[in-house]
Write a structure and sequence with these properties.
Elements (H helix, E strand, L loop, with lengths): L1 H16 L2 H9 L5 H8 L7 H15 L19 H6 L5 H24 L5 H6 L6 H10 L12 H25 L2 H6 L6 E3 L2 E7 L8 E6 L5 E6 L3 H31 L1 H26 L14
Antiparallel strand pairs: 1-2, 2-4, 3-4
């Protein structure tokens, strides 16, 4: 136990003298993905030379493409947005689905880059070979979720129909409100000649002393108390239709999310393997750019026999 502790403290002192934490922090700054940055910032040195040999070979191959600012066509995505749910086969969030789509688009780009730039042999080609684009899933995700994680109306025919109904209902309500604004009695009761959408309701800003001139339900009152926001009674039917359509859209979006989650679960191993390969490429790219910035040269690594 004493020898083990002594070896550990000696190792930590050596790493501190070498300014290892500063080196790994600088190395991590070259990474593209946030999870790769964390991994490289907490990197430990290799204990055995044979553990280093493949990475050194891969880094050398990567360096041959480092005349570009970043040799590989990588772009940021948040692995944490879908990793846990995907591993547990839980319902994925729309944002997680969006980042999965980004990842799959990147797989397609890397696969195309490999075919264009790499020879038919080499460790780098072997590393990229298991990448699977899953084009059908990527297309489904792309038509269903936008970059901000919102469900698109193109996600399903039922959702598209619901959005068309929503637009029609909103247009009809807008026309009804414009007609109310032309009524002379209502005009005299308003604080301003306009209508508002307030907390999911279409309302008119009515003077408190003329509230009785506009039949309807008071939805809120201004801070000064001089204005009440009234939902006109004549809009009751349209408002009910609007609420029903919004509820229908929410239900359809949940169906889309559930269906996409199930497809992702069915491809879980492939998706996670793709992430592992992209992460390794990001690490190699960071190592190559780091080595280039220091004008580094490959080390000569060999085993030392214990006698």
């Amino acid at each position: 136990m004493i020898n083990t502790w002594s070896a550990y403290t000696s190792r930590e002192k050596t790493l501190k003298l070498l300014e290892w934490p500063k080196l790994t922090e600088f190395l991590s700054s070259y990474a593209c993905f946030s999870h790769t940055k964390i991994k490289l910032a907490n990197l430990d040195p290799w204990d055995l030379p044979r553990d280093a040999s493949l990475t050194i070979t891969l880094t050398q191959e990567t360096l041959s493409f480092a005349s570009y600012e970043r040799p590989f066509p990588l772009s940021p995505f948040e692995f944490s947005s879908f990793e846990g749910h995907l591993r547990r086969e839980a319902i994925l969030s729309p944002l997680g689905l969006s980042h999965l789509c980004r990842m799959l688009k990147m797989v397609e780009k890397v696969t195309a880059w490999r075919a264009q730039h790499l020879p038919s042999f080499g460790e780098l080609k072997n590393l990229m070979k298991p990448l699977v684009p899953l084009t059908s899933l990527r297309n489904q995700l792309a038509k269903s979720v936008d970059d901000e994680g919102s469900i698109l109306e193109t996600a399903s025919p039922a959702l598209a129909d619901a959005h068309r109904k929503l637009k029609t209902t909103k247009k009809r309500i807008s026309q009804s409100l414009e007609s109310l604004l032309k009524d002379s009695v209502i005009q005299q009761a308003l604080q301003e000649s306009t209508w508002r959408f307030h907390d999911g309701r279409y309302v008119l800003p009515v003077r408190t002393d003329r509230k009785s001139s506009v039949p309807g339900i008071t939805r809120s009152i201004s801070q000064t108390g001089a204005t009440v926001f009234v939902e006109p009674a004549s809009l009751a039917k349209e408002q009910a239709e609007l609420n029903e359509t919004l509820w229908l859209i929410e239900c359809e979006e949940q169906k889309v999310i559930q269906q996409l989650s199930i497809i992702c679960w069915e491809n879980k191993d492939t998706l996670l393997n793709n992430v592992d390969i992209l992460t390794e490429l990001d690490e190699l790219q960071a190592r190559a750019l780091f080595a280039q910035s220091f004008q580094g040269i490959p080390p000569n690594v060999h085993e030392t026999e214990n006698k």
